[in-house]
Specification:
The complex is a heterodimer of chains A (about 290) and B (about 270). Chain A has about 290 residues and is mostly beta strands. Chain A has one domain. Chain A is built from one helix and 19 strands. Chain B is mostly beta strands and about 270 residues long. Chain B has one domain. Classes of the chains: A mainly beta (about 290), B mainly beta (about 270).
Chain lengths: ~290, ~270
């Protein structure tokens, strides 16, 4: 049989000495070769399609983060086990050139990638669901992705369990006095109902003549955005912004380690108030930070 | 030998007061835990995928006073169910539907359904103390003591009525909380009133009656104590819209027409 079922294709990431098996709901690997047609006067049609840039590959997946575990397996040091969040938090303020990334293994295919986008959605009383995209880079003449799609051996455990380590909004405290995302009217504080967070990273690949793939990547900037839904509305958006730090703390079901996201002095970019017949008024705010 | 629990071994109390003439009772919950089915799955793990709620449904005969109609408003109720030596308590229950019906040969009945957003189960999170019965004297209504005020019924025999009031709620959950921060009582309340009559001169309306000849009716249902004029309950609705009529007959029965009126109640 050539078809491979989802449970035979684990997604595993590795960063330094840390390895994390992702609770991934889906995973997509994309590869592209940038080609351009070569025309020639006196020739009908094209001479050929020729490379105009390096071959690229990207891998994206959505998952629920597991927050408990050992940061350092050898010394049993617990901490922010979530590799992707850990990398995203550090990268946005980093000024270093990126010469190594996160190793990703996906059903026998592996590659090393740089985090290009990371987002998560939080609805009230639901598990956190993250989405992530990595740009895979080769090195010198090594291809961005190697290996082949193969069914993997997965150790089965018949014991069901509560996913005590997954991030869950029912156990997470948010913000936020003083945050621009907090709405407080004269006598009431808004009830936060959903949070959509996203961060995107921009890199500049550094190429050398004679090599197809970049030797390193220079991190240039990151843009971070959070959209929150509440049930109160505060009129009078400030043109110059209202910049105070914004912090999200996501806890696991067993109330253990949290994903922490700190937006550095985000500015309120837009607000929206919406109500439909039969419903209750909902408000939405977008705050942005740039690095 | 295993014993059993019969009707005399159970009791429902709401806000500390017992509910009389209870005919049926059901309550329960369904876990919101859902399996996380992931790539390369090793073992099945479960996580709450939504708020944990419970529900309760009860039916009773109409006696003396209507116990549940008062909860169609915005206030929740708490309660407990005693059975044998066990005690189940529930809190933050919001009525989601209320019904009343009666047919020839029946005692008028009441029904209610409520969603429980607080706690439900055993435990010492609530103490009502001793519960008292709601009514010490049962005044049971009868089908022969119902008076319905609607034009068509002067010359057409009413076989049954059925009233249903939907009182939907919208719970608003905040993060880091397992119970809603608030429960919004939606508006309007939908009222559906169905009658079944054996007609004499009843005329079925033309299906083109909307909007030119829209039929609105004021309806008044008075329910008295059995064989008495002592009023137990009165339902009054104005401007109910006639929404359906159904003619039914077969070889062995009289012609029957079922018609439905719909109305709304806007919350204050």
């Amino acid at each position: 049989m050539s078809s491979i079922r989802y449970d035979k294709i684990p997604v595993i990431i590795q960063y330094g000495s840390r390895t994390e098996k992702i609770l991934a709901y889906d995973c997509t690997l994309s590869e592209a070769a940038e080609l351009q047609p070569v025309y020639s006067i006196g020739k009908k049609g094209i001479a050929e399609q020729t490379p105009a840039g390096a071959r690229t590959a990207s891998i994206s997946f959505s998952y629920t983060p597991v927050l408990t575990g050992f940061v350092n397996e050898k010394y049993k040091i617990k901490g922010d086990f979530n590799i992707i969040n850990h990398v995203a938090s550090g990268l946005k303020t980093s000024k270093k050139a990126q010469t190594s990334g996160i190793s990703i293994r996906f059903g026998g295919i592996s590659g090393e990638g740089l985090l290009s986008s990371y987002s998560f959605q939080l609805e009230s009383y639901s598990p956190v669901e993250c989405s992530v995209n990595f740009e895979l880079f080769g090195s010198g003449e090594d291809l961005p992705a190697s290996g082949e799609l193969k069914s993997q051996t997965v150790t089965r455990n018949e014991q069901s369990a509560i996913a005590s380590g997954v991030g869950h909004s029912a156990f997470s405290a948010f913000m936020t006095a003083g945050s621009p995302a907090t709405i407080t009217s004269s006598d009431e504080t808004g009830i936060l109902q959903s949070v959509d967070y996203a961060i995107n990273f921009d890199y500049e690949p550094v190429y050398k003549l004679g090599q197809e793939f970049p030797s390193s990547f220079l991190f240039h900037s990151a843009s971070e955005e959070t959209r929150v839904s509440e049930n109160l509305y505060e009129t009078g958006i400030e043109f110059t912004g209202k910049a105070e730090n914004f912090k999200l703390n996501i806890k696991s079901i067993d109330n253990a380690n949290a994903i922490s996201v700190n937006m550095d002095k985000p500015v309120l970019a837009n607000t929206q108030l919406r109500v439909g017949a039969g419903g209750i008024a909902q408000t939405e705010k977008t705050i942005r930070s740039f690095y | 030998m295993l014993s059993r629990i019969r009707r005399e071994g159970q009791k429902l109390a709401v806000n500390g007061t017992g509910v009389n003439a209870l005919q049926s009772l059901s309550f329960g919950y369904e876990t919101s835990a859902q399996p996380l089915s992931t790539l390369g799955i090793e073992k099945m793990i479960y996580a709450p995928a939504g708020p944990q709620t419970a529900s309760i449904q009860a039916n009773s005969l109409m006696v003396h006073d209507d116990f549940f109609i008062g909860f169609t408003g915005e206030l929740p109720f708490s309660g407990q169910v005693d059975y044998k030596n066990e005690n189940i308590k529930f809190t933050e229950a919001y009525l989601t539907s209320y019904s009343s019906s009666c047919s020839i040969g029946e005692i008028p009945s009441l029904g209610m359904s409520a969603e429980i957003y607080g706690e439900m189960g055993t435990g010492e999170y609530l103490d009502f103390g001793a519960t008292a019965p709601h009514d010490t004297e049962l005044k049971i209504a009868g089908y022969n003591s119902i008076s319905i005020d609607l034009d068509e019924f002067n010359s057409n025999r009413v076989n049954s009525y059925s009233l249903d009031i939907q009182t939907p709620r919208t719970p608003v959950y905040a993060f880091n909380d397992k119970i809603p921060s608030e429960v919004v009582s939606d508006s309007p309340l939908d009222v559906t009133l169905q009658f079944s009559i054996e007609p004499d001169d009843y005329k079925i309306k033309n299906i083109r009656f909307v909007p030119e000849e829209t039929v609105f009716r004021n309806v008044n249902i008075e329910i008295n104590k059995n064989n008495s004029t002592e009023n137990i309950k009165t339902f009054s609705f104005n401007n109910m819209l006639l929404v359906s009529e159904q003619y039914q007959s077969d070889n062995n029965t009289n012609v029957q027409i079922n018609f439905t009126l719909k109305g709304t109640i806007l919350r204050a």
